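Dear colleagues,

I hope this message finds you well. In preparation for our joint manuscript, I am sending the Collagen alpha-1(Xii) chain (Plakobranchus ocellatus) sequence together with its predicted structure, so that both groups work from identical material. I would be grateful if you could confirm receipt.
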Amino acid sequence: MASLTLFAVVVLLGSVHCQFEPVEIPAVCEEKEMDIYFLLDSSTSIYINDYRKELDFVRDVVNNLDISTAYTRVGVITFSDNPTTPSVLSLTGFQNRGDIRNNVNENNLPYLTGLTYTDRAIRYVRQLPTFRRNIVKAMVVITDGESRDQGATAREAELAREAGFYMFVVGVGQYRDEQEWRAIATNPDERFMWNITSFQQLTNVAYSLPTRACPLPPLVQRACDVTRRAEVSFVAGAAASRRVFEVIEDMAQNTVDRGNRLAANFFIPSCPSNLLGVSLDDHTLCSSGFPSRNTAGVRLFELIQQAKIRAAEGDSFTTQVIVAFLDYDVNDRSRRYGLEVANELKEALDDGTKVVLVTTDFNPYENNIATVLSGRDFRSVAFSSGTPISDQQDQLKEALDFTCEAINYFPSFNPARPN
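The corresponding structure tokens are as follows:
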């Protein structure tokens, strides 16, 4: 009977651990708008008891944040060979401290074992579509050693910083080479990196992390602030791949249209018709469910012709912009087809429409399109066909900047439109 009583006491104490008493939030974290994601190393080199201390760490940090849909949101993933996250612990899951803390447990975040692919975890979080714009975005990476591919990890951390993330890293254990941790962390290292010798010390980090993260301002990201009335027509042939829609989605996420001055049209066979006329300042544009490039449909030059007619019908106080995606058909078909595309774009430019050419799979100069358009004011962006769109931040910035420049163009006179 005594042993049963002792067992009952142990069970009771264990259950008490799940009933969290909220603490007073540090003043600097009150009403802080922030999205923060914890990336927890769960590879074989982490003992399970140490992994449990990682979970304790997340719970301790969460207890010092102002959790709500309006202020701070928290996400958690574990990683080894591949990252995993339960939906309840995503940014759009539980939205109060108690629920998050009660659900940061081994049932939702099981101990994985495996190799340490830190790069995959960082990439996974960076590409999540649920982060809010114009607020602080942060990742907190906890790991005990070298990742499987240090070069890939450094590159993914760089891409995350370029995408507007603050990168915190907590290095635990006797791993002496800090080079990889420094490659992950935002500068200065002394503010964004901890090098501790045991998982027991995570308690100290949990105390200091909120006071380091909460005062941070949002990182300045590329953005287009619409200042004039404009209408943008996105044009792509029936062979348009998902890469085209990734570029459009990136433009949408980074365009701010406070005055509702901007309208968007889609002359794209695989784009749902219910998106016609929606504002570009919309996060749901063409984001999923589109056919691959083998879709049959209208030829690209005919779609450009339709966009050109639409632009000509616009009033002289609205800037007209055509963003044309030159898909692989232009390259694969005859030179005549490429010239038909070029001539339609040339006529649009001559009518006063601004033109931005975007290529995702080949160089348009191979088709003499640029030659036909020489001497005219247009912009061109070429993405590398062998690299994911999300990894080509320079090209994404160019595409946004060129389109924004066209949208906000202020002519010295309004070109006459044909009747």
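For the figure legend, we might mention the following. The chain has two domains: 20-213, 224-407. Confidence is low (pLDDT under 50) at residues 1-19, 273-279, 282-296, 412-419.

With kind regards,
E.M.
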